[in-house]
Amino acid sequence: MSLPLAATHPRLSVHLFFPIIVIVLTTCSSAFGQSDTQLDTTVVDDTVSIAAAPVTTLLVEDGKYDDGDSLRLFWVPSIDDQLIDSKVTGYRVYRLVNDGAAEPIVDLLPGVGNYTDKNVELDSSYVYYVATLTESGEYPSIHTESISPQREWINFRRGYLFIIMMIISAAIIFYVETAKRGKKLFVRKIAGLEAIDEAVGRATEMGRPVLFIPGISDMDDVQTLAALTILGRVSRTIADYDSKIFMPVSRSLVMTAARETIKTSYQAAGRPDAYNDDMVNYVTDEQFGYVAAVDGLMVREKPATVFLLGAFFAESLILAETGNSIGAIQIAGTARPAQLPFFIAACDFTLIGEELFAASAYLSGEPRMLGSLKGQDVGKAIAMITILLGVVAVTLSEAWGVGIMTDLHAWLVKVFSSS
Amino acid sequence: MRQQIPLLITFIVGTLLIVSVFIPPFGDLETTFNIWFDIIAVFAFFLGGGNLLRVHINKLRKRKRDWGFSIVTILGFSVMLIAGLFKIGNPGDIASAVDAPGSLFYDIFNSVQYPLSATMYSLLAFFVASASYRAFRAKNREATLLLIAAFIILLGRTPFGVMLTGWIPDSTSLLQIPNLAIWIMNSPNLAGQRAIMIGIGLGVISMSLRLILGIERSYLGGDK
Amino acid sequence: MEHFALWLSAFLTLGILSFLYKDNPWYKLSEAIFVGISAGFWVVTLFWDNLVGKFWDGWQDEPMLFVGAALGFLMLLRLVPKIGWISRWPLAFIVGATSGLWLMNYLASNIMVQVMATIQPLFSTGYASGFDAGWGAIISSLVIVVGTFTGLVYFFFSKEHKGAFGGAARVGIFFIMITFGASFGYTVMSRMSLLIGRMDFLLGDWLGMIG
Question: How far is CA C176 from CA A344, A349, B189, C166, C171, in A?
């Protein structure tokens, strides 16, 4: 019989263990008491033993909706982890990979009760334990069960995000298609864009060039892409009017893309030989170095018209004020709200945020493009209705406790927090 | 063909990155793209840097206006390039960080590029002043509103604002300029900010869709 | 050497400041130095950080990096006139990726988050507002809802700004102008401190007049 006694006779086990637990507890508490009194009376040396209870209820679970690349740990902090005079200086998480040796993976502050291990691999198994740290040593918890991370293929947590994306996209595509079939769609006038022809015409009359600045971000900023699409329309007008354009840029990729854009506009206008690579030049990636060069160019070349469209940062006002000082007509636009006031103060026309993205569609006058603007408005309507509904619901729910409104509000929170 | 392939690439890559948000195993695509982008940008730099040199060498050769300064630019560019690529004067060997203190690259950055950059940035103080002056001649109701809000916020951030309206009793403390400034920041400003941001969000979505679907292709050479 | 560096910095600082008076050779010299040095700085930085740091040191672990490098190489084909059009491929790749990424990011961060943040009870006292009790809080909350709502009306493209709709759009643009004013006023002081920083360098570090 190799079975342990305790397993075969449960009652006996209680009888056996109870006294042992009592003995252990009394010894422990008397030991604590002793060390306390020692601390109170004399300080013997600086390595006084401060024992602390280990963390309890340590659980590990697979990270939800991930690529099998995270495991989440939860625990109840040590009872000795107090706000004031705490013995606990922190926690150290240990990990055993594929039943190997335990290795510390992270040190956490006192009071912390969870940790997500993002450095895990699909086919490995992991066991964890958490050690409570004190000045004198570590007090480990029990080990978790062994777990392997799981891969999920669809992130259901983002379900509502998906639905909202589909609704807005469908609205845009719907109106694009409607317009394509010949239905006339109304689009209101945008002052800054109405002025473009006139501004380019003025440059032609004065015999001075047009300066186009596409912001200082690279091609990985959608504002730069918006600027280039506008450049496509503007350079077409410039080609038609036989004006001159020059375009210093601060990114090599933007230089390449802008050349491509202008070149095709000139081809479309039937004047391919009037195009020249020197219309677009790279200056420097350095924000203020670029500004120094553009400022110099502005006062020397004296462009009649300046376009400042794209992503701008602190330099927005330096450029816009210099352009203003040389008496150029300035058409500016950015989706960076912090820079918009400076453009408004120093430029003749400013495209505010969304108008920058609408510009090329508007300028093209093409039905499909205008359709996309109408589709955008559906998105706005959804946002407005949601806000109204949500505010009414949460107000009625909080002030008068209207049940159905509480549910509605809870649902809206769920939908719009799914990002 | 010349149009079709790029349009197809844009469509596939764009769609993939949208879908990746919902499919965890594709979650790393954004990081991968960013790294690829950085690598492409270095290659593009050969074009940009080459263009910079070409422009200035041309200016020099043809003795165009201000050609003397082109020599300075070419020199500056070359010196920085040699200092950085060969890590001249670096305390360690070639494996040390390029901007390690003590290196020529570091010294030039500190005594040339940094002061130039900081001074150019500081010009904003003057330009802010001239822009404010122009805004003072508010032409219409909108501009007047902008001006009033700017003025209150500006005063609210200075001790002068506290001094000016400190006598107003606590019962109507909102009228004290610092409080009024906080209220403007937290209420009407916040509202305007939100409308702008939601608008921008929709603008970005529409713009991106037009690009992904190939409706907007002026950057690829219009519709022909 | 240190002395020389200090004088050089001061010389360049004054050169840039001289632009305020008018364009002049001193500024042109500073500008030429700035452009040359900083373009070189970025070539070097991108070379070590991206080409060496991200590609060369990483391709053994991540062979897919070669796709990035191949796309980069295609960019260079611009230099060959006959097949220059192939350089549109990497551009198309970048345009697609940027569009896809921004579409989702802006939907989540700009639209959903902002809509969610606006849904607050009108009687809330916890809403950040300047004055948090009684009618004051209600008015502040109303201002936020009305401002956001009418601001969105202003951005409507497919409806003419006439009648009640036009009135709402007008209220919306008022809110947007207050927003611009607020951020203008907020920035002015910080811009002034930039200048103070440079003056500090000229008068303190360089001339030793303050300190």
Answer: 11, 15, 7, 15, 9
